[in-house]
Amino acid sequence: MSSEQARELRQQGIAAAKAGQREQARQLLQQAIRMEPRNEAAWLWIASVARDQRERVFCLRKLLEINPNNEQALKALRQIETGEVPPAPPPGTGGLKRLTGTQTGANPPVAARLSTQEIMAQPPGVPFPDADALDAAIRKAEALMSEPTADALTTRWSKKTKGRAGEQDIWRLRAYVGAGALAGLVVLCSVSYIVVANTPPLARAVFAPTATLTLTPTFTPTSTPGVTPTPSVTPRFTPEPTATLLPQVPVGDIYSVEATDVYPPLFNAPLEGAVSLIDRGQAARALPTLAAERENTSALFNPIPYYYEAVAYADTGNTRAALRVLNDAEERLTDPPNNEQKALLDMGFAYVYLAQIETAAFAGSSVAGTVLTNAEERAQAAVEGDPRLVQAHILLARTYALQDDYEAAIEALDGGLAVPDNAYNTSLICEKARVYLLDGDLVAANEQSRIALAIDPTLEAAYQVEIAAALADDQPGVAVQRAQAYLLYYPGSTEAFRLLGDARFAEGNYDLALEAYSRALSAGQSVMTTVAALLGRAATYTLQSRHELALEDLSQAYELRTIDAVRLLRMEAAYYAGEYDVAAEDAAALTAAAAPVDSDFALLHARILIDQAQANDDDPPDEALSLLERARTGASSATLALINEYRARALFLNRQFGEASAAINAALDSGETAERLYLRGLIAQQLGQRAAAIRDFEAVVAWSQIYPLAFAEDAAERLEDLS
Predict the structure, then answer these.
(1) Which of 249, 443, 486, 619 could form a disulfide with 245 if both were Cys (CB 3.0 to 4.6 A apart)?
(2) Which among 116, 120, 115, 91 is positioned nearest to 103, based on CA atoms?
């Protein structure tokens, strides 16, 4: 429990540090360190919000006690000791906000620097001694040292003429030990020589000369003048190009993180706290404060509380309430309306419309096309009304991306970056990386994400794009490294653990993938992260043939996201776990819902019905044979063999032994399995073909000596009866 509390406090402290709330961040991180005093991330972040250089040095040295090889701590300590001051990032390049702006503010005052000796001599918070008191102490010490004492006047020194007490005994003992060791070595060498000399095989091995291998010289052609030499082989591995930063691109440093000014600016602390909660994914907690702030604008209209309240409602999934708030605000616009006020409300409408589309897609449904059109129109109006609204450019780009018009999406984001106040804005750069990733341009996606990380090395969105790009490029090892870098700055991030699980799964390290997925599910997280982690862990369990555990995870995922794709996965897991009733229920529901049914689904549905009938000792329904015929369309040879096998099972249960014999023989023509031989033996026994049944049951018994077969005992009993 304390570990979870420490992780929660650490996350809140990191979020507060990125939001510029340094004192709150220090308090939260100090509480986290009390619970986990050896957590590197906590010491790293508390160093970035230290009050002065002495406190920062103390934190960095504590971090180096935990990990002496921490490069960031070594670099920061080296900068402090050498007097190098990392450049402060220019306005507009800090951490992500829902509304990021770039209003220029005065640089914070730099505290007076102390020398390295002064820093090392004093722990944080301890004052230096007074200079006068120090001089008085020194004078008193010198006076005491210079006054002669009675012992000093009477003491006489003489030179020692003999050795120390016991010195001769020590030398005598050393001589005895050395002589004994030498004698033992001589005896050992003599005995070894005698043994080797009297043993002919050993003597030949030790003393006989051996042939020296000489390499036969090979012909080396001499190069002919004027002939172009043969080019060397080009290595198959081509290093991945790194993003080249322009000189004017600001380079960030976590030790000088400054929050980006919010645009439009917030005028009071309650509103700032509510916006901070929204940015940290706690929109529900922000709603009461935002409602109170909106009611306080009755005298003088202010659209900012309306906008953020609508955003908070949309983030909690209540888009109807969000639209109601925005409609109320739009009715209060003055005539003629203020362009900036209307632009903010237009941006709010676009945000809510896109949230409706995302919610519908998550639930496996769709919304009317007019919703996307309305979102595009509102976003375009917001961009034209106030180009400084960063989120408006992002929302406009997302409307284009939903229409697969990635070129227009990039143009919309470039338009936002062209605004002087928004140059090098990390939100816009990360969104460009995401659009390039959707378009399949992995090189451009990586380039944009690395530029964003150079400006601010703590951007979650940039790490998420890098991990997804590495997985799309079939580089799971790179994805693992980037996920671990993500966790360095966000040690308790459930999304980071979920992505690490995906990377480990692609890498083939299934045990590590299960650990990462379980960490992603061990704390509070969003519904989307929970469902993704459950699906990833279920896929890992399936590969390990742990179908019961996979069925549990898929059942939880379906409760959170009731869509056909998840239900289809649960149907497969239930079938392989032997839960035929659950599998049959899911198959019937998918068929009734007119879900897309292909040949694979038809075959699995038929297998469920036949195995369920066999388990319940019933006759399979006629629907099973109909589904098997439908599954033949476009089936491969291996699938056709499986179709014939299950057709034989259904006919056998219906006591149509002649047709069942023809079907099982067709399946065996494509490949022998113990199950098929056992089934053919059962059919032959029913047809009175005793010799054929004995031959098949003997083969099954022989196979059972190598592989564990559930029906081996029954085959042995039938073989004994027939013999």
Answers:
(1) 249
(2) 91
